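A reminder from the course coordinator: this example appears on the midterm review sheet, so study it carefully.

Given structure:
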């Protein structure tokens, strides 16, 4: 009977699985988002969320414990310096799995695993700020663009002839 045998071995030996999860966790911490299969993402989610929780307490012991899992000094430093202050008030659920469809070669379910507090589109931060009005070309510029193929010099002369002469009546300030 297989009661309480819920770990997904991912078809790998124990050492291969541990090193793969450490590498994937390091990539997730450094890049804040990775693309992988759904099965690997679920295993990685249960692997990295306790490490993020451990990083909330910045002590020598917790740094050593996290380093023993990640085996990467830069990822450990990034986790404690930048990620843990940002998720300090969050009680859990630090990662999100977004399914993206199936892979072409073997039809495996693919997904994006990302840190929740680092997706600006989902937070509504920068996506709303970048939305601006569309630019409209003036009729003069449209004429320049359409005539430019026939001769840029002729188009420029034609535009100068049609432009009214604007003389500023204000004296220049020196």
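Designed residues:
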């Amino acid at each position: 009977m297989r009661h309480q045998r819920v770990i997904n071995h991912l078809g790998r030996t124990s050492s291969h699985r541990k090193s793969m999860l450490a590498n994937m966790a390091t990539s997730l911490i450094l890049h804040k988002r990775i693309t992988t299969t759904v099965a690997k993402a679920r295993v990685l989610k249960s692997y990295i969320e306790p490490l993020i929780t451990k990083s909330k307490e910045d002590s020598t012991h917790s740094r050593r414990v996290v380093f023993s899992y990640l085996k990467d000094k830069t990822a450990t430093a990034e986790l404690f310096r930048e990620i843990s202050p940002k998720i300090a008030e969050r009680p859990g659920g630090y990662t999100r799995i977004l399914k993206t469809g199936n892979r072409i070669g073997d039809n495996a379910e693919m997904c994006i695993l990302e840190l929740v507090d680092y997706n600006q589109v989902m937070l509504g931060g920068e996506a709303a700020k970048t939305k601006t009005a569309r630019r409209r070309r003036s009729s003069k510029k449209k004429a320049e663009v359409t005539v430019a193929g026939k001769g840029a010099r002729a188009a420029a002369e034609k535009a100068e002839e049609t432009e009214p002469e604007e003389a500023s009546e204000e004296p220049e300030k020196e």
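The helical segments are 14-31, 38-54, 60-70, 73-86, 120-123, 126-129, 139-147, 152-162. The longest helix spans residues 14-31.
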